[in-house]
Amino acid sequence: MGQGLSCAATQEHGLFSAVQSGDLDTVKAVLERDPSLMHQTTAYDRQSALHIAAANGRIEILSMLLEGSMDPDVVNRHKQTPLMLAAMHGKIACLKKLIEAGANILKFDSLHERTCLHYAAYYGHSDCLQAVLSAAQSSPVAVSWGYARFVNIRDDRGAAPLHLAARQRRPQCVRILLDNGALVCASTGGYGCPGSTPLHLAARGGSLDCIRELLAWGADRFQRDASGRIPYLVALKHKHGACAALLNPSSAEPLVWPSPLKFISELNQEAKALLERALMEANKEREKKILKGTAYSLPSPSHSDSGADDNISEASDTELCCICFEQVCTIEVQDCGHQMCAQCTLALCCHNKPNPATACINPPVCPFCRSSIVRLVIAKVKDCEDADQEIGDIGSPKMRKARRSRNFSNEGSSSFKGLSAMSPFGKMGGRGSGRLATENEWVDKP
Ligand SMILES: [Zn+2]
Ligand SMILES: [Zn+2]
Q1: Ligand 1 center to residue 277 CA distance, Å?
Q2: Higher confidence at residue 126 or residue 263?
Q3: Could you list the residue range(s) of the whole structural domain that residue 332 is in?
Q4: Could you tell me which residues come within 8 angstroms of residue 50 by beta carbon, excluding any fewer than 6 positions away?
Q5: Is pLDDT at 354 greater than 60 in this prediction?
Q6: Which of 275 and 308 is assigned the larger pLDDT?
């Protein structure tokens, strides 16, 4: 009897270590001998074989267990599902497989009542985060709970996934969450210091990248936590000097992702990514100015100086933006087909803030023909011959091709001066751009 028990225990142990090490053959052999072992759990944490497979990224074993009709939502001692462990360890293939097999994305653990979305955000696995969000859009969760509610789901201390991502210095997750409707100014209940916003938590964590993302989405530098502190004071307290400099209410305001863009239907993903990048670059330029002369220099950023240079040299035969005459046209306005650079597109929209008095939000219009902007798409890069053939087209902004004579030598540092100086249109008059609309939709906000 005793022998039998210890034999089962050995087999069980053999099963779990085989799952952990990804030894599919042994797992198969053990389960063939005793199929009931599939439902065994480890002694203390009560992890199932499925948990161990998910946490270790053992996709073949995980698939086999699921095909053997193992419940994908089996929970361990802390009511964690295999899905949560996959999100925690960034095992994207296992996470996707579990979702395919019908794993519930709306389960809460018993530690802090967190979901798999919290886990992905906390541990910074943006691919897993994205996969869970995609699943949420098409799953019954969206119907029963509402997608926005799911994105902003709170744990037992009032922390939404965005709070965790900001605190743990996960800028990519911060961006994805914001992009999916996470509330940028939501306060926690008891997580961190009570009443903390994501910006307070990013200040606590000391991540410039997270702070930049949050500010670009309109996070409020003046919002106070329950003890009356603004994010600036939190950064100071924790000696994150560069963060504090940006959060200092007397520093220049960052550019905020312009609300009119949200009203342009079908802003396609590529165009959006391009514009977002331009916005971030513009804000980085500002940061440099703010930090210049302080003790804090920017940590060498993910900033793609080299990438930008590549684009410029590749694009030397393409069209120069007719507004700033500095950047290459990368954005095309539809339906009219006029083109401009991402920086000018953003400037146009940033300057076209809704009038708070009328509360009426007018989408921006094309600066060339004043027709309303239906879509913004990536401008197609023409090769030389195409462009030459079209040179006779007077109606096309491509006529100004000749102006491309400016060199790009100091482009790296000055490419965003149009935006940061907020006056990319100041040059229009002197440039003979008579075709540009003259009404001042883009005048500075008061
Ligand atoms: Zn431009
Ligand atoms: Zn136009």
Answers
A1: 15
A2: 126
A3: 312-446
A4: 62, 65, 66, 70, 72, 74, 82
A5: no
A6: 275
